[in-house]
Write a structure and sequence with these properties.
The complex is a heterodimer of chains A (533) and B (181). With 533 residues, chain A is an alpha+beta fold. Chain A is built from 15 helices and 20 strands. Residues 513-533 of chain A have low confidence and may be disordered. In chain B, 31% of the residues lie in helices and 33% in strands. Chain B has helices at residues 18-29, 42-55, 66-77, 105-114, 121-129; strands at 6-14, 34-37, 59-64, 81-93, 96-104, 138-146, 159-166, 176-177. In chain B, helix 1 packs across helix 5 (121-129) and helix 4 (105-114) packs antiparallel against helix 5 (121-129). The model of chain B is unreliable at 169-174 (pLDDT under 50). Classes of the chains: A alpha+beta (533), B alpha/beta (181). Chain A binds chain B through residues 33, 37, 41, 85, 87, 107, 131, 135, 151-153, 376-379, 381-387, 393, and chain B through 16, 38-42, 45-46, 50, 65-68, 70-71, 74-75, 77-78, 82, 156-158, 167.
């Protein structure tokens, strides 16, 4: 069994006893077999000395038990790292920032406290998975939707606290934005509630997020200032119907009005999450003809790309618009969207999907993108299998997730900058001239890329880490920062947020990730007084 | 926690792959409830297994691609369960399938007896996992199927056969047996 850094054998033994007293002996995990379960399945350091490993895990059942564990950790200066369901794959999984940490595994705290389908909110504990909340709603026939990420085995609390995102409508996709009220165990072991939750007997915990006085909730997301043990969320009223329509525009420069118009529709709440693409390709290596075109001295110009598209009788860009609401509202919004495009983008063409009424039939449910209609699922794990297009599936991936503006100009710039960066680094490009951003965020794009992870090829992992770190710098040079990242790269990303000599992150508001984060006790609490410092 | 006999609650067959389909047919013939998936375990998980595991741990087995096992194994960890047997089955060429097995020594010994040598190797694996020990000294074996006549013309995703069962403390041995629903 590993021992946390700087902790004596005697103190460690005493701490484990106190953990057992707090949560019960079966819920303190110290065997090699048990702690191995907390390895990051997608660790970029897999099998290397730098891999973040756990010394033990403790699974409390209540906020009071969490507080007791935190007090013990403080007493013996043991680093702790809370997780909700620990499924944050691609951003670090359940492994801690600091090797030797004790994981506080909140999976037993899996109670749905309340769901209200008249006022449209939920209050849940961190061990509740999206599947659990969905089941709670479905079995009771409640008239609300959840917004869930892909896959659906994660925790609404953990996902929101890492600024996770989803697929449905407006700001509901920004899971921290849609939170409302927290219960938090502080490093001192005190339990606080934020917003209206701070009012004993409050009737509006999950409806009015500010309460009275300074708003502190953000300190507990991607921060190390506490462990969230309850969280309220605004929920979307279940819509009556759903329809998609794919708009395709012919020319490369049409990306600018395409995105402007979609922004207009989305920010006015006329559509849900748009999904951009290009009929000409996307992420991944270019086909031979495109590769040849890209070799043109000085690079291709817009007319070259337009000719490339015309030769294939395809549009240059597309966007899948998603409409939610009553059929009459959907029809009106769709017609309005078509009017706007026809007025602004010559040649814009629409392909409408079927108008679907809820509840969906099984056949309809099988065909829709489930997360777009609030259904958690695991299907994303069935698409990584070896195929002719994917002959060597990786063992995992790391997400590189820079935030860029929601404009066509920014997308074209990101394509150019990252393609040049990959070329300069001598690495295979993950970007093509047709790569489009992810749109999970309501007000910004994520120009996301997945770096492959290998369990067996250490050299490849090292190389990918180097390239990843360089891309963080390249992005920062262009005003783009990552919105979340695995522990391996948090220092790199944090370094990019350097305004005024990194004044924001001086002191103790050090970003981290997952449930609410690694907490190095000695940074936060005076071991003598037990008070925060 | 002490080990008891853990009947197999279900066997998962991934119908995208002919070998896994054969595995499922044999498990069915042996009387085990078979869940047929096409890569996605969502339906099995959400409508069945998650509720069962919430009540009590029951053993399951399967032959799938890596993805479904990856998901089920992590769900299993949250319920105090582990993969106690794992076999990877890699089609090398038209005439050879390589098998790498790890699990309790008794099960591995039975695998060596079965041999997995002929075209019915997937059915052999179904028989193997349908009576798999869930504890015992860890062991491993590498076996080879040789398809002397005909051969095969596909190169599918490497398949994994597996047994997930309640984690056991100590060396007490027990068997996964049929018909646990």
């Amino acid at each position: 069994m590993a021992i946390p850094p700087g902790v004596s054998d005697r103190d460690w033994a005493t701490a484990l006893q106190q953990f057992e007293q707090a949560v019960g002996e079966p819920w303190v995990f110290t065997s090699d077999d048990d702690v191995a379960l907390y390895r990051d399945a997608y660790s970029p350091f897999w099998g290397e000395p730098e891999e973040r490993l756990v010394s033990a895990a403790v699974a409390p059942d209540t906020a009071e038990q969490v507080a007791a564990v935190v007090r013990t950790a403080n007493r013996f200066r043991i680093p702790i790292f809370p997780i909700s369901t620990g499924k944050n794959l691609g951003y670090g999984g359940s492994a801690p920032n600091l090797s030797g940490s004790v994981v506080i595994d909140l999976k037993r705290m899996n109670r749905v406290i309340e769901v209200d389908d008249k006022r449209h909110f939920a209050i849940v504990e961190p061990g509740v998975a999206y599947f659990d909340l969905y089941r709670h709603i479905q079995t009771r026939g409640l008239n609300v939707w959840i917004d869930c990420p892909d896959p659906g085995w994660g925790s609404p609390v953990g996902n929101a606290l890492d600024h996770g995102v989803g697929y449905t409508f407006g700001a509901y996709r920004d899971h921290f934005h849609s939170h409302c009220g927290l219960e938090v165990v502080l490093p001192s072991g005190d339990i606080v509630r934020t917003g209206m939750g701070a009012l004993p007997g409050s009737k509006t915990w999950a409806e009015y997020r500010y309460g009275f006085g300074p708003t502190v909730d953000g300190l507990f997301a991607q921060g190390n200032l506490g462990i969230v043990t309850k969280m309220g969320f605004h929920l979307l009223p279940a819509p009556e119907a759903y329809q998609t329509s794919v708009v395709t525009v012919p020319r490369r420069r049409d990306i600018v009005p395409l995105i402007d118009l979609v922004n207009e529709l989305e920010h006015a709440a006329l559509i849900g999450m748009p999904e951009y693409g290009s009929p000409l390709g996307g992420f991944g290596p270019p086909p031979p003809e495109l590769a040849e075109l890209l070799k043109k001295p000085g690079g291709p110009i817009d007319e070259d790309y337009d000719r490339y598209a015309q030769q294939r009788n395809r549009g240059s860009w597309s966007c899948r618009l998603q409409f939610y609401g009553s059929p009459r509202v959907i029809t009106a919004h769709l017609e309005h969207a078509k009017d706007r495009f026809r007025a602004v983008v010559p040649g814009a063409a629409f392909e409408d999907g079927e108008l679907l009424h809820f509840p969906l039939t099984q056949e309809q449910s099988d065909l829709v993108h489930k997360v777009a209609v609030g259904i958690p699922n695991m299907s994303i794990f069935s698409i990584g299998a070896r195929t002719a297009l994917n002959p060597s599936p990786s063992d995992g991936h790391l997400w590189f997730s820079p935030i860029i503006p929601k404009t066509g100009e920014a997308v074209l710039e990101a394509q150019r900058v990252f393609m040049e960066a990959f070329a300069k680094l001598g690495a295979p490009s993950m970007v093509s001239p047709f790569s489009m951003p992810a749109t999970w965020m309501h007000r910004a794009f994520i120009f996301i890329m997945a770096f492959p992870i290998s369990r067996t090829n250490v050299a490849q992992n090292r190389r990918n880490r180097e390239v990843f770190r360089e891309l963080v710098k390249v992005a920062a040079e262009h005003g783009w920062g990552e919105y979340r990242t695995a522990p391996a790269f948090q220092d790199d990303v944090m370094a990019a947020y350097s305004y005024n000599n990194q004044a924001l992150f001086s002191g103790y508001t050090r970003p981290s990730r997952t449930q609410s984060i690694q907490m190095v006790s000695s940074l936060l609490v005076d071991p003598e007084s037990g008070q925060g410092i | 926690m002490t080990c008891t006999v853990h009947p197999l609650y279900s066997v998962v067959s991934d119908v995208r792959f002919a070998d896994s389909a054969e595995f499922g047919l044999e498990a069915e013939r042996l009387g085990v409830h078979v869940v047929r998936i096409s890569g996605d375990i969502t339906g099995f998980w959400f409508n069945d297994l998650s509720m069962r595991w919430r009540d009590h741990a029951v053993a399951i087995a399967g032959m799938t691609a890596h993805g479904p096992l990856f998901c089920l194994e992590r769900f299993a960890w949250d319920h105090g369960m582990r993969v106690v047997f794992r076999g990877t089955h890699l089609v090398l060429d038209a005439h050879h399938v390589a098998h790498a097995l790890t699990g309790p020594s008794g099960t591995i010994a039975r695998a060596q007896t079965l041999g997995l040598e002929g075209p019915d190797w997937a059915r052999d694996v179904a028989r193997l996992v349908s009576a798999c020990e869930v504890a015992g000294e860890p062991s491993s074996a590498e076996l080879m199927t040789v398809l002397a006549t005909g051969g095969r013309d596909d190169m599918p995703e490497p398949l994994v056969s597996w047994v997930i069962a309640p984690a056991c403390a100590g060396a007490l041995r027990s068997l996964v047996t049929l018909g646990g629903r």
